[in-house]
Amino acid sequence: xxxxxxxKVLKSNIKCAFCKEKNCTLRYLPGHRKMVGTHYIACNKxxxxxxxxxxxxxxx
Length: 60
Known about the structure:
The structure is a single chain. This protein is α+β, with helices and mostly antiparallel strands. It contains 2 helices and 2 strands, in the order αββα. A hairpin with a 2-residue loop joins β1 (33-36) and β2.
């Protein structure tokens, strides 16, 4: 089931409007990422943020 709500899309679009990334192909897409085949294509800023959060987590 899709967990995209009106407010998530609105928040995402507001963040995207203030982004200074030029020629972003994923501009105004919910979640700033799109699945192509078995791989995700993500916005550069979202990718950096997600990878930083993954590296910041402690190991089990």
